[in-house]
Amino acid sequence: MIARYAAIVAMALAAVVAFTPCSRAGLDAPSTRLESTLSRIQNHYRVTNSFHAKFTEQVTSPGGMKKDRTGSVYYLKPGRMRWEFAGPETETIVSDGVIVYSYEPDLNQVIETPVKQIIKSPSATAFLLGFGNLRTDFKASFTPSAPNDGLIHLTLVPKEGGNAAEVALDPKSLDLVMLDLTDAVGDRTSFRFTDWSDNPTLADSLFKFEVPSGADIVRTPGAS
């Protein structure tokens, strides 16, 4: 669970940043258009220090399982994040930049995992920590057979290994609208984002986690 959402945040960092649509001349050359798009994304990413958005989440599996939730996500460089999932199955995931805390009230359990342990791909780790380069760390392409919905669709594949992500942005508002991630066993996690805000002022307290009274603590290897 933790690794999946940490990976999602890492991939979202590559897509959250806005870019200006290419000129008409760029549209005549797909490779030039892609290079121009990636340059604008990377440049904007450098000045995107925080974000906040609301989301709906849907998780589906090849076996027919389906789960829907809503919530909010906050991010602050370097490496701080907070995911708040509303019921059913409420959950809070908080990273202070060093440790990720995953708390499920139904189990009254907190799992503590070092940030560097939960991202196996070095390039994804770099993005989660606020570093990295979209062009050199990912194989990026315009998504083939993307729906004709007016959005800008990109596919991002970590060069160091890991799951590909499909993202879509609104060409007018430049907000991240969609993020889809499919894992090795075929489980698909789909997010739809609304009320996006770039570079809001976020309180440090959002990224501090206090273990609830009586909760069990499970520390993964490397957690202090």
Structure description:
The chain is of the alpha+beta class. The protein has one domain (2-219): Lipoprotein localisation LolA/LolB/LppX (outer membrane lipoprotein receptor (LolB), chain A, Clam), CATH 2.50.20. It is built from 6 helices and 12 strands. A hairpin with a 6-residue loop joins strand 8 and strand 9. Helix 1 packs across helix 5 (122-128).
Second rung of CATH, namely the architecture: Clam
Strand-residue proportion: 35-45%
Q: Radius of gyration, rounded?
A: 17 Å
Helix-strand makeup class: alpha+beta
Features:
alpha+beta, outer membrane lipoprotein receptor (LolB), chain A, 38% strand, 12 strands, 22% helix, 224 residues, twelve-stranded mixed sheet
Give me a quick take on this structure:
The protein has 224 residues and is α+β, with helices and mostly antiparallel strands. The chain is built from six helices and twelve strands. It has helices at residues 2-15, 24-27, 30-46, 115-118, 122-128, 134-137, and strands spanning 50-60, 66-76, 80-85, 91-96, 99-104, 109-114, 138-142, 152-158, 165-169, 176-182, 188-198, 216-219.
